[in-house]
Amino acid sequence: DFVPLHDISVWTPTAGGSEKTVYPRNKKLDNKISLYSGDITKLEIDAIVNAANKTLLGGGGVDGAIHRAAGPMLKQECASLHGCETGEAKITCGYGLPAKYVIHTVGPIAQGGVGDEEKKALRSCYKNSMNAAAKNNARSVAFPCISTGVYGYPPEQAVHKALATVREYLDEHHDKLDRVIFCVFLPTDKELYMKTLPLYFPAE
Ligand code: AR6
Q1: CA distance 4 to 27
Q2: Ligand 1 center to residue 66 CA distance, Å?
Q3: CA 137 from chain center: how many Å?
Q4: Would the CB of 193 count as within 6 Å of ligand 1?
Q5: Per-residue model confidence as pLDDT tens digits over 149-187
Q6: Is the pLDDT of residue 19 over 70?
Q7: Distances, alpha carbon 203 to alpha carbons 17, 37, 41, 196, in Å
Q8: Going by CA atoms, what residue is nearest to atom 7 of ligand 1?
Q9: What percentage of residues in the chain have a pLDDT greater than 90?
Q10: CA 24 to chain centre
């Protein structure tokens, strides 16, 4: 029941959508974005991103799902990495997962509210994860909604940070990645992304 890359549809911007787009169209980015609704552990792509914690030793949420699906070898490799700071990213093999790599990043804890520090850290998560992918020649990468679960970052704010960071990275490095997949798990996140994607990846 794995989902290969060719079954993950490309997100096509619709013309005449929103008036208040944030960026103009960049044709070089056409066909590079996907919105996928479902379990990230099923994606048969180069790399999936894990919303981990600083220990990198597993936890609940998407982290728990990834470790369960990958098997105990993943934890073993993670244990050799000596943790990860907030905003940083570390890459491992995918083991039992259909994805070749897992990129573990640690999102900010936003239960005390979102300030400049949290915004900067969330941006770093996306940026450092894409850099880790590119460095390892992983050309397709899927992101969960980092920090918006247990870590309490408001999804309405996180979606803008995620899309702005990916858009800016791809503007500069469009040759380094073939596909960035936003993997949403909750129907409310799917709606948020459908509403917000046209602002960052408009048709015209
Ligand atoms: N596939 C895709 N997305 C998922 C999946 C899945 N299988 N399962 C959950 N999500 P969270 P955080 C979504 O809490 O907020 C862990 O214990 C979920 O609906 O997993 O960054 C770590 O060890 C939500 O939209 O991550 C850390 O201690 C999103 O993934 C802490 O939680 C992120 O929710 C990290 O908290």
Answers
A1: 25
A2: 10
A3: 17
A4: no
A5: 999 999 999 999 999 999 999 999 999 999 999 999 999
A6: no
A7: 8, 22, 30, 13
A8: 39
A9: 92
A10: 22
Task: Count the residues in the chain.
Answer: 204
Q: How far is the CA of 185 from the centre of ligand 1 (A)?
A: 9
The model's pTM: 0.98
CA atoms within 13 A on the CB side of 113: 2
- Give the distance from CA 196 to its chain's centroid: 15
- From 51, 183, 55, select the one nearest 125 (Cα to Cα): 51
Pick the more confident residue, 23 or 178: 178
Decide if 104 contacts 56 (C-beta within 8 A): yes
Q: Whose CA is nearest to atom 21 of ligand 1?
A: 147
pLDDT for 111 equals 87
Confirm or reject: Cβ of 148 under 6 Å from ligand 1.
yes
Query: What sign does the dihedral 193-196-200-203 (CA atoms) show?
Result: positive
Cβ(48)–Cβ(95) under 8 Å?
no
Q: How far is the CA of 65 from the centre of ligand 1 (A)?
A: 9
**Half-sphere exposure in the Cβ direction for 93 (13 Å, CA):** 10
Pocket lining: 188 vs ligand 1, CB cutoff 6 Å: no
